[in-house]
Write a structure and sequence with these properties.
Layout lengths: L14 H5 L7 H15 L7 H22 L1 H15 L13 H18 L8 E9 L8 H4 L11 E14 L4 E12 L2 E15 L2 E10 L5 E11 L2 E12 L2 E15 L2 E9 L4 E9 L3 E10 L4 E9 L7 E9 L2 E11 L4 E11 L2 E10 L2 E10 L4 H73 L3 E10 L12 E4 L1 H6 L6 E3 L20 E8 L2 E8 L4 E3 L11
Helix pairs in contact: 2-3, 3-7, 4-5
Length: 559
């Protein structure tokens, strides 16, 4: 489709930005912008061979963008799926008078066909590694009894348990999936493992079923059945029944969970578990953009308890969260508090301090790396010692901030620079082409801009004195970074009509006469303009809509 013309737009080109129209622009607005750019770039207006060649290329690019957006079908495809939708095989057989909804359905059908061809190549690996550490010798030492024993001056820190589990999913068909999982555990020198195979089938849009088979050296064979079903749009049920075979006989188990949406952000759960550890549990979970709250009550054998937890989500780029919980029951009372933070694109690091009676004090460190979880519970003391609570709280904070400053931050900065450099290298030819097109467009605009300025001066209208686009460095902490901007005075003046300049919510790199001077970095547009003889100035973010003139842009003469 889009490749029908001799010249083809780059993959990252914005058709709307090239024509400087809103995404909701009517056919009349598209046509008016297209005609204006055609008059600007028409090859017949230029006699110089070089300018004529450049004008012909730009004219074809504008024409190609207009061809896509002026056709309701291709515009609907582009609006929903962008350039990749236009390049999808199979659109030739689609009827031309389909609605956007019908086009979406057709695209999803074509996409499903492509996904099914790649089905066998996909897996979803998940894993957990847990290492339990006994560090009670740091705080619970028998100094008087063992002070003369050789080597006793150094605390003994031991690994007393480990657990490793891994699972992979193998899609068999569009509705059937096989899940293979296994685990190994050891504690105080004793250990074992098991392996499980589950077959899951999606029976309908409302539910699925799963058969599970397992075997291990500590326990005998396991047969299980799990069923999920949406009862209504706001309510679902999950039932899991299992038969565990062992030397003591057959141990049946049944777990049923009924869940309901209480409102947009709140879920209520009722759970009944029958078997070795029978219990009834009810809980309410409220999850919003800034917080996560849970309250739960369980009555069962051997444990009954009540639990309240709260988590606050900070709206920062590191996705910082702080949390606290209180759990009290027949086993005692536990208070937990902690925090977690994103330390890289795929990694989240968290630490939780657990203080309880009779459990003592523990520090739990967790690292999530993509679909892998690494968990390190460190048991510090069996008693409630203030020193243990202090070091468990302050120690991880000091270590984290030291590592963040000395290791993580420099690593992420270097990684970002490598990615930017790689992105610059991969797009170097496209950016060079865009730069040449922008420079050619500016040369072609000169005569039109001269006429626009004469008309605006005659009416004391809008005159762009200077305009720059790119990366500005105003923060003192970034003073070593290089400013990367280009002069866009002429292209902006060319867009002035009736003493007004209107830019839509799109990257300004796609505007005629613009290009991206700093790929992958934040960009802004800074404009110094004159309106009715008074200087104005404004700075706009790259994807921010801009409308000038405005009274708020006026430069105070007294300042």
């Amino acid at each position: 489709m889009a490749a029908a013309l001799g010249e083809e737009l780059p993959d990252n080109e914005d058709y709307y930005g090239l024509l400087n129209v809103r995404r909701e622009a009517s056919q009349e607005e598209l046509k008016a912008s297209y005609r204006r750019l055609c008059m600007l770039y028409h090859p017949d207006k230029h006699r110089d061979p070089e300018l004529k060649s450049q004008a012909e290329r730009l004219f074809n690019l504008v024409h190609q963008a207009y061809e896509v957006l002026s056709d309701p079908q291709t515009r609907a495809i582009y609006d929903i799926y962008g350039r990749r939708g236009l390049e999808m095989e199979g659109w030739e057989v689609v009827e031309r008078r389909r609605t956007p909804a019908e086009i979406r359905e057709e695209f999803e059908r074509l996409q499903r066909e492509r996904e099914e061809r790649r089905l066998q190549q996909r897996t979803n690996p998940k894993g957990t590694i847990s290492v339990g550490i006994d560090a009670t010798d740091l705080f619970d030492r028998y100094d008087e009894e063992y002070e003369d024993v050789q080597g006793s001056s150094f605390p003994q820190i031991e690994i007393n348990k480990m657990h490793i589990s891994q699972s992979i999913e193998a899609p068999l068909t569009s509705t059937d999936t096989a899940i293979l999982s296994g685990n190994l555990s050891t504690q105080n020198g004793n250990g074992g493992g098991s392996i499980n195979l589950a077959l899951r089938r999606v029976t309908s849009a409302k539910g699925w079923g799963e058969l599970e088979f397992g075997a291990g050296d500590l326990q005998g064979p396991l047969f299980g059945l799990k069923i999920f079903r949406n009862l209504t749009q706001r309510c679902f049920i999950t039932t899991n029944c299992a038969l565990q075979f062992s030397s003591r006989g057959i141990r049946p188990g049944l777990t049923t969970v009924l869940a309901r949406n209480l409102d947009k952000n709140t879920m209520g759960y009722l759970q009944w578990r029958w078997g070795i550890q029978s219990a009834m549990n009810t809980s309410v979970v409220r999850d919003t953009k800034t917080s996560h709250f849970t309250v739960a009550l369980q009555l069962g054998i051997p444990h009954s308890f009540m639990m309240v937890s709260y988590q606050h989500k900070f709206q920062d780029e590191d996705q910082t969260r702080i949390k606290g919980s209180l759990k009290a029951g027949f086993f005692g009372t536990i208070v937990e508090y902690g925090a977690e933070r994103k330390i890289s694109r795929h990694s989240i690091l968290g630490a939780t301090v657990s203080v309880g009676v009779p459990q003592g004090v523990s520090l739990k460190i967790k690292l999530n790396r993509a679909s892998q979880t690494y968990f390190f519970p460190v048991h510090l003391t069996d008693q409630l010692l203030p020193s243990a609570v202090f070091y468990a709280t302050v120690g991880p904070l000091v270590i984290y901030f030291a590592m963040h400053r000395l290791i993580i931050k420099p690593y992420l900065r270097a990684q970002k620079e490598r990615e930017l450099e790689k992105q610059r290298e991969s797009t170097a030819s496209d950016i060079l082409q865009k730069k040449q097109e922008a420079e050619a467009a500016v040369r072609l605009m000169q005569e039109s801009v001269r006429r626009i300025i004469e008309a605006e001066e005659a009416r004391m209208g809008l005159i762009v004195v200077n305009a720059w686009y790119g990366k500005f460095v105003n923060d003192n902490s970034r003073k070593n970074e290089k400013v990367k901007v280009i002069d866009v005075t002429v292209p902006l003046q060319c867009l002035v009509k009736d003493s007004k300049l209107i830019l839509t919510e799109a990257s300004k790199a796609g505007l005629p006469g613009f290009y991206d001077p700093c790929v992958g970095e934040e960009k802004s547009l800074k404009v110094l303009y004159q309106f009715r003889g008074v200087l104005h100035q404004v700075m706009s973010a790259d994807n921010e809509a801009l409308r000038i003139p405005k009274q708020s842009h006026r430069i105070d003469a007294d300042g």
